[in-house]
Amino acid sequence: MSQSKARITALDFARALAIFGMIIVNYKLAMQAENSGPGWLQSIAGLFEGRASALFVVLAGIGVTLMTSKARSSMNGKLIRQNRNSLYKRAIFLFIAGVLLLLMDWSADILHYYAVFMLVAAVLITVSNNKILGLFAFILVASQLFLVIFDYTQGWNLSFKEYTGFWTIEGFIRNLLFNGFHPIFPWLSFFLIGMWIGRKGWLSKEHRSKLLIYSLSGTVFFESLSFFLIKWASPVLGNEAAHYLFGTKPMPPTMLYVLSGICSAMAVIAICLYVVDKFEQSVLTQALISTGQLSLSHYIGHVVFGLGLLHITGYLENGSLIFAMAYGSLYFIMAIIFSHMWRKWMTRGPIELLMRKLC
Which burial class, exposed, middle or buried, applies to 45 when counting CB atoms under 10 A from its CB (0-12, 13-18, 19+)? Predict the structure, then answer.
């Protein structure tokens, strides 16, 4: 397997892990099981919060960079226009898919945010690395300032389960840009850093060990910085305000959360590069790669079929963390089996094929 193909399949492998984490988090959220179950299980489930989806978005940024690399390197006007048109169409497709999930009462949808990421990617195809990094820094700093200037809780009820006025223009834009589950400020930062990393060639074999060491060190550093800032600021600002400004939970998404999330995402990607390189012939590895290649289908499927079945049978909102984790794990195992079988006959997943045909 060539280095280039190995990198792409490792990204698919990482995408499968991201899907698993998102399934666990989303099922826990949908079943209202955040604060139930034994402490050790809550800790395990908490590891996925905001990390799996961050990994998913970073991978999307890297993927778009690989997709548009030929157009960017050649600066061929026709090829650039073709890539931009494809990204515009994908943005429309993902926005419609996301809105349909929202209409199905899935408030934690990520696809309509993805649509904005695709639009940004289309504009930035020929932009320099330094400008992308500058835009990343701007989004990051602006997002932290917004948390101070604006009311992050506006629209949400006390449990952060219902968003009043979501389908109004003001509410939808506020949720999209500022205080939704994956708002553009700062979630666009994950996508931009993915684009930047994809351009830098850091996924090559010779850089793999450095990537792993630096990303793990960065995760430890930013988590430690968050811990000490909260500890030092709590007596002055109060415990709640200190966590609000310096925490590393996804809501509210602080600067430290984004930086820690980027580092943890890159650590997982680096580990996946090692795993795929060493165990590429393993049936499980190949099945997980296939699962990652069907990630869009599985994202939509885990809402429509996974949560749909719970809704029909009356098990939705059952409040059991053990059940949520077990059900999510079982669903992911079924997704792996389905992906492995599907890829024997088809090159892309069901939703991926539809998007490819339309976009």
Answer: buried
